[in-house]
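Next up, a chain.

===
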Amino acid sequence: MANPSVEVLYNQIFINNNFVNSVSGKTFPTINPANKNKIIDVAEADKDDVDLAVNAAKTAFKPDSEWRKMDASARGKLMYKLSELMDKHKIHLANLESLDNGKPFSDSLLDIDMAISTLQYYAGFADKIHGKTIPADGPYFAFTKHQPVGVVGQIIPWNYPILMLAWKWGPALATGCTIVLKPAEQTPLTALHVAALSKEAGFPDGVINIVPGYGPTAGQAIASHHNINKVAFTGSTEVGKLIMEEAAKSNLKRVSLELGGKSPLVIFDDFDVDEAAKIAHDAVFANMGQNCCAGSRTFVQEGIYEQFVEKAAYLASQKKVGDQFDVDTQVGPLISEEQYNKVLSMIESGKIEGAKVEAGGSKVGDTGYFVYPTVFSNVTDNMKIAREEIFGPVQQIIKFKTLDEVIKRANDTKYGLAAGVLTNNLDIAMEYIDNVNAGSVWVNCYDAVNVQCPFGGFKQSGQGRELGEEGLKEYLELKSVTIRKNYNF
């Protein structure tokens, strides 16, 4: 099933249901992070290509277009057909994802299953978006009507390429919007392949457009475009701020942002230590730590701290690091040289500032961008590794005494994406839930992301929500309609 020699069928820009070269003729390489070898050159979109894609999406959104006149239930059926095609091509897509991203093949299969489920979930919503009647004062009949926001720009990251595509496409298509999506330049291949499947499914021309390229060119063109009505972005807080600025300066387009995190997982001494170590381990090391809601600050109550550290170090040391297509691999490479160097520099800063390396702490050879799963103990709140997002396989274990103390420390961050608590005391869990500043709180589990549950952050972890019914609201305008009664029409 796993095939590192998988054929790349699509490497051009996708506009108006056609694959085309970039206007400039430029391309960029996409790299296999396991060996640093080029996979293929991909057409590089910039402002001119974004303009073409936006024009196609704008045409597809005209009131008399096939897409706008389509029954809502028919939209849902198209989405479901796309999900079925993705399932049919799942092995090929998983191979592309692992080749381009570096994640183990089994992880890619899981991501694609979740992407399929996301599209199917939102397909069911397509004909269930409706307003309400309002008992307005006076001789009036009043109601609300939801309508799609229009042309939407979507910019997705490299850590979950196909899953983030589904998170963005699901609510946008269900509500009847048209799309211009920029995949991360590191991982464009699965987005382009799914674009081809969308054409096969029967989506009308211009509804879905893919513009692979770089953030400062293609991404900036999307954020600042006057004919894009909303932009959705998942990525770093720093880039999210730039997107908000461009959106405000252009046409005040709507913005939804899912940004960085430095999420706390708080473990109390009444919880089973072995189970706690396993939950905390998965919270940090899933997807090589390249996870926005990773529970990277592991707060452990002092009574079990030493025991927990020993178990955490053992779990990390047992993980198999290697090629993403090896069936035994649990940890693949980091995505790029830039991310690899950043993670290694953060590990060095932890050593310099006095944290103790309990496992890992170094790179793995020189063939690819591999880093050993690393565990630090004796971490204090002021250390760089405890304050800045690492986005790599690095766990920081921090000691605490009381509930009140740890809530204050957990909230002492600019981020607020997620949080977790492990305890057998319901009162403690509820106090934590009520007071921690995070968009998702997991109790006695971690990273339990479900398509039915809204996901998003507090503070500088973003604004707006994805997934669940709440995710639809980001793609809808609300219109209030008032009709005078007893009027002779």
Notes: DSSP finds 16 helices and 20 strands in the chain. The CA atoms of residues 439 and 457 lie 4 Å apart.
